[in-house]
Amino acid sequence: MKSQVYNIISVIAITASFIPLVLVLVKNLWKESAFLLIAFYWVLSGMVNILDKTGISKPTMELITIVYNMFDIPIVLGLIYFSTKSFRIKRFTRIAAPALLLAQLISFMVKGWNYDAAKYVLAAGLLIVIYAVVCELSLYMHKLEHTRHEKAMVFIHVSFLFAYGTFIIIYIFDYYIKVGTSSVDNFIIYYISSLIAIIIASIGYLAKGSSRNFI
Structure pTM? Predict the structure, then answer.
């Protein structure tokens, strides 16, 4: 029963990961770099998850997942860098993203390409992403009025906050609270959180309006 639930939820979540890009096409947002890059971020996530459904060998899939996880947080920090108007947040993400990537590479070189080598850098990365998103959201909250662009970005940043807040729970169960069924449970939580995050982000895309509407 649990495996059936996992298969259904994973397929729905993977399919949903392409919705932001569809909305970019439908709403003519190609020239809106932040929305386009974020849409491609979800597409990349979906494509990596599709590979897990293709029968690819387990060692190869593990390596792909490790590499993807290594780049995932620096990519999100890069998205925050391109979407924020705050010099302080730009400076923070510009330093944090390459620093995390370098730290992870060093850890892999020392401990090998395995999940345990990502343990501590991943924890730091999750906290850094949440900190950056909270800082960005706090800037929006201090304004009384928002443009459509700002309203849309609030939803997108909330989607990141929800996703990475949930990833902390998954991280704890992955590395510190291991039980017999934790792997399947973690994947179910991952896909559910990803689906909810994509729905929240998609609301942001809908709130943005087309590229012809600049207010």
Answer: 0.88
